[in-house]
Write a structure and sequence with these properties.
The complex is a heterodimer of chains A (255) and B (197). Chain A is an alpha/beta fold. In chain A, a hairpin with a 2-residue loop joins strand 7 and strand 8. The longest helix of chain A has 11 residues. Chain A is built from 11 helices and 12 strands. In chain A, strands 1-4-5-6-7-10-11-12 form an 8-stranded parallel β-barrel, surrounded by 6 helices. Chain A is globular and about 45 Å long. Chain A has one domain: TIM Barrel. The two termini of chain A are 13 Å apart. With 197 residues, chain B is of the alpha/beta class. In chain B, 24% of the residues lie in helices and 29% in strands. In chain B, the strands form 3 sheets. Chain B has an 8-stranded mixed beta sheet with strand order 2-1-3-4-13-12-11-8. A 3-stranded mixed beta sheet of chain B has the order 5-6-10, with no helix packed on it. A two-stranded antiparallel ribbon of chain B has the order 7-9. In chain B, a hairpin with a 3-residue loop joins strand 11 and strand 12. The relative contact order of chain B is 0.17. The interface between A and B is medium-sized, with 33 and 36 residues.
């Protein structure tokens, strides 16, 4: 049976792993390769690296650390942040990344999704969506890595998710910004709405605080994977313990 | 030290396979040179991209002829395995025909996302040396939309709403639909078994 995926997320800024609360006030958490290795040993199913300030600063994911991570890791990893051309993506895939997640550049130019899919296939192309609930509506935000540059993309989250999949995206990561970093649980209603709208793998992000939050999002929103950062970085939740517990709750887990 | 030819068809993302082999302590020769492929101790045929595009890339360099004459253990991974087969619903071109079978596409079915992406379980059938020490139910990492149906050559099955071939063997050709290079300790065990053949 296909297992649900537990995915630690490593936000990267200036070559270090950092963590902020609701995308603000970043603090340094640790070294990229060391933390990645720790998560592999603990049984993470996949890792995601977000070069969080990239799109807003016109930078992109650094090739040196992608290569260093690929040398050490024997699980898949995805990189994100400021990748805005097929050539940018090709260089990161050649350095050993398995998937490329695009966010702001796809909002600027949706045809970029089609170009990426034509070049690398759907399985490589992940669309990251930063979604904020405002007055009961889900809106896509852009340039979320820097609060001073963040803006409304004027897109509705469900419509954008569907468009991305129609253009060939192979996976959607939905980051529910209202929930990000506050550990009150994933946004089940929003994730379930997107789950209904698209048939590709859906990954939940934003809000993990307890082991029960993972169970809830898998059971109630039927997502394929769940991303978390601070609860893993700060060892509030132990990954091996989490996976055994979820398995005991009847969810398919790779132990 | 044995030399493994890792066939470079010009598609992106063979770094993971290369690094996984280097971690096994073998010499990895990333090449599309037919002579270097023929003279290698082992050959790995990775595949990324789409069926026709990837076949075109290897046809140009003379790799296909070299592969037809191989007698040493050779393994296709993911699309590489499908390219060793006779044909695929993904493309118009014939495959290399070194293993029997035709790749089909997973239909969209309720509750089943396509591509099949993530960790799923192996059900070994028989006792092929490639899977020695791999337990039934062990998880490996898959990313694909096309599959080979189970056949007498299947050495491990997987289930994704329907059974399909996760690994197979015909003569000196092995194939893995999953990615051993991304499958943590189980994948490392399978690569180690392959290198010991």
């Amino acid at each position: 049976m296909l297992s649900r995926r537990i995915i630690p997320c490593l936000d990267v800024a200036d070559g270090k792993v950092v963590k902020g609360v609701q995308f603000k006030n970043h603090e340094i958490v640790g070294e990229i390769v060391d933390l990645a290795q720790r998560y592999v040993e603990e049984g993470a199913d996949e890792l995601v690296f977000y070069h969080i300030t990239a799109s807003a600063d016109g930078e992109t994911v650094n090739l040196d650390w992608v290569d260093a991570v690929a040398q050490r890791l024997d699980i898949p990893f995805c990189v994100a942040g400021g990748i805005r051309s097929v050539a940018d993506a090709a260089a990161r895939l050649e350095a050993g990344a398995d998937k490329i997640s695009i966010n702001s550049p796809a909002l600027e130019n949706p045809d970029f999704i089609d170009e990426m899919v034509a070049a690398f296939g759907s399985q490589c192309v992940v669309i990251g969506i930063d979604s904020l609930e405002v007055d009961g509506r889900y809106q896509v935000k852009q340039y979320t890595g820097r609060p001073d540059k963040m803006q409304d993309s004027r897109r509705d989250t469900l419509t954008w998710a569907k468009e991305a999949v129609e253009r060939g995206a192979g996976e959607i990561v939905l980051n529910c910004m209202n929930q990000d970093g506050v550990r009150q649980g994933y946004d089940i209603a929003q994730l379930a709405a997107v789950r209904q709208a698209v048939s590709v793998p859906l990954i939940a992000s934003g809000g993990a605080g307890t082991m029960a939050h993972f169970k809830d999002v898998f059971e109630q929103a039927d997502v394929d994977g769940a991303i978390a950062a601070s609860v893993f970085h700060k060892k509030i939740i132990d990954i091996p313990e989490l996976k055994v517990w979820l398995r005991d709750q009847g969810l398919a887990m790779r132990i | 030290m044995q030399r493994v030819a890792l066939i470079n068809s010009g598609c992106a993302n063979i770094a993971s396979v290369r690094y996984a082999l280097l971690r096994q302590g073998v010499e990895v020769d990333v090449t599309a040179d037919p002579k270097r492929i023929t003279s290698a101790d082992k050959v790995i045929f990775p595949g990324v991209g789409s069926f026709d595009y990837a076949l075109e890339a290897v046809e140009k360099s003379g790799v296909v002829e070299a592969m037809r004459g191989l007698t040493q253990p050779t393994m296709g991974i993911c699309l590489g395995m499908q390219m060793l087969a006779q044909a695929s619903a993904e493309g118009q071109k014939p495959g290399l025909g070194l293993i029997k079978g035709q790749a089909q596409r997973f239909d969209d079915a309720p509750g089943r996302s396509v591509p099949h992406m993530g960790w799923n379980q192996l059900e070994p059938c028989g006792d092929d040396p490639l899977l020695r020490g791999v337990e039934a139910g062990a998880y490996v990492y898959f990313v694909h939309s096309y599959y080979l149906p189970p056949s007498p050559n299947t050495i491990a099955r997987c289930d994704y709403g329907q059974p399909f071939t996760a690994a197979l063997r015909q003569d000196n050709f092995w194939g893995c639909q999953f990615h051993p290079e991304l499958s943590a300790n189980v994948g490392a065990k399978i690569l180690s078994n392959f290198l010991a053949l």
